[in-house]
Design goal:
Layout: E1 4-8, H1 13-24, E2 28-33, H2 36-44, E3 49-53, H3 59-73, E4 79-82, H4 97-125, E5 129-133, H5 146-166, E6 172-178, H6 184-187, H7 199-211, E7 216-219, H8 221-231, H9 235-243
Helix pairs in contact: 1-7, 3-4, 4-5
The structure holds NADP nicotinamide-adenine-dinucleotide phosphate.
NADP nicotinamide-adenine-dinucleotide phosphate is lined by residues 8-15, 33-35, 38, 55-57, 83-87, 106-107, 133, 135, 178, 180-181, 183-186.
């Protein structure tokens, strides 16, 4: 039986690499993002895939995109991956509410819009998996990334709560927390990115974890350990370490 997945933010980076990896593993795919030409190019290289142009911040558009993709591929999704995301620095001393709000609209509301469009059918069928690409940045408040790291923390806790609620219905939920991955998002970073990982490798790790039904997929391992240790540092010590890096 062929499995079907929908991935948001599949026009570039992690979303595109994950689509390519799942394609190699025999999945049928729906690729969703705003840049139609990139989606069309990507779909042309995949065995069985469809492209749907859509802005994840628009709930009606996401629901419509899911229905159109289901019709195109011939059935509902076994896997939905909320990957679409944006990130840029935000500064508390020169705060821009519009810029910070946009990070939440894409990363958090975008995920919720996909969740609302696919999960009822998974519950009905008593099967399926919903995954969100959060980040290791969600484990603690990172200075100059208040909006980004809090949006990823919101994703993590939303997914964790949903995982517990959906388990009795046979629907799995996976939190994906990558460290630094080579994509357009990190290309603009001017600081040293420890354990920077290539995107095709990240896609393999994510696909392996999803196919195994893991609750949490977190990598690279040294970054995962470091951020989890940071999470348990006393607040005063965390502040003292981070203030030197800001
Ligand atoms: N790279 C990293 O180091 C890293 C680490 C941890 C987590 N992440 C997370 O991984 C995810 C993918 O990021 P990436 O690194 O692969 O960056 P990327 O290459 O910039 O990809 C972002 C994707 O999101 C889509 N997108 C953005 N806004 C959208 C919107 N309003 N509606 C629909 N799609 C939208 C973009 O497509 P369009 O512009 O065509 O719409 C693009 O396909 C993000 O959630 C990010 O936070 C990345």
């Amino acid at each position: 039986m062929t499995l079907r997945a929908i991935i948001t933010g599949a026009s570039s980076g992690i979303g595109l690499a994950l689509a390519q990896e799942l394609d190699r593993r025999g999945w049928e795919l729906a690729l969703l993002a705003r840049r139609t030409e990139l989606l069309t190019e990507a779909v042309a290289t995949l065995k069985r895939a469809t492209a749907v142009t859509c802005d994840v911040t628009n709930a009606v558009a996401v629901a419509d995109a899911v229905r159109r993709a289901e019709t195109e591929l011939g059935g509902p999704f076994d896997l939905a991956v909320a990957n679409a995301g944006i990130g840029y620095p935000t500064h508390a001393s020169k705060f821009n509410a519009e810029a910070a709000g946009e990070i939440f609209r894409v990363n958090v509301i975008g995920m919720i819009n996909l969740f609302s469009a696919v999960v009822p059918s998974m519950i009905e069928r008593r099967s399926g998996r919903f995954a969100g690409i959060a980040s290791l940045a969600g484990h603690r408040g990172l200075p100059t990334a208040s909006a980004y790291s809090s949006s990823k923390a919101a994703m993590q806790t939303f997914l964790e709560a949903s995982r517990i609620e959906l388990a009795p219905y046979g629907v799995g939920v996976t939190i994906v927390n990558p460290g630094f991955i080579v994509t357009a998002m990190t290309a603009k970073n001017r600081f040293r990115m420890p354990f920077l990982m290539k995107v095709d490798r990240a896609a393999r790790v994510i696909a392996d974890g999803l196919e195994r039904g893991k609750r949490v997929i977190e990598f690279p391992r040294p970054m995962s350990i470091a951020t989890r240790l940071m999470r348990h540092l006393p607040d005063a010590l965390y502040d003292a370490i981070m203030v030197k890096r800001t």
